[in-house]
């Protein structure tokens, strides 16, 4: 896929909307970040080039009891964005090691896009309807898994979407020229020169409703009741239990057979009265 998509989403967030928004890097990932979608943070794997946010392919409403209220979305504005960018680079190199070689080149990149966006936001006051919502019982198995790992989970609460289909244009060209001179002997000298040119053009069509960027809040689960708080809050998604002076997770800590393995069926020894 052309890098034009990632380039335009990053530039849009940086110049036209809040920097708190996170740009979508690849159009194939856009559908996984719809409003109320769940994902986990893996920014500690940033050095591997992975998405910092790992979508779970599940909505917040999928893990709540049936008939839980759905918070309303507010549509904000209609913002036209037009972007044109031209990049040109020139370079030259010369080598003389028994043969004289000179090469020069020029590279040009051209990007153009024009589209309209709207902001789909679930404001905090609308999220209040979830204040007393409870998890399914029993809870989904993937929650048990993330609970055991101590992962933090997040919920998409705001998106930037395309109002109409859009086309991203990307053109690139490279022009090379060179000259080669080789002294075969003191009487005969060989020479050569040439030029090369290559041009490519790509068009990326984005459908109506494509998600270009999103914002998030952290999911907090306490005694089966959910709450959404600011994404940068220090509080953890899952509550930890403290027993016998040792902090443990609520569910599986290690694989069976390992030392100190705790399963859901394990009966912990009771503290002796002092």
UniProtKB/TrEMBL annotation:
Record keyword Protease present: no
Domain of life of the organism encoding this protein: Eukaryota
GO cellular component: cytosol; endomembrane system
Keywords: Membrane
Listed GO biological process terms: defense response to bacterium; pyroptotic inflammatory response
Domain Gasdermin pore forming: 4-239
PANTHER family, sorted: GASDERMIN, GASDERMIN-C
The protein's name in its UniProt record: Gasdermin-C
UniProt organism field: Tupaia chinensis (Chinese tree shrew)
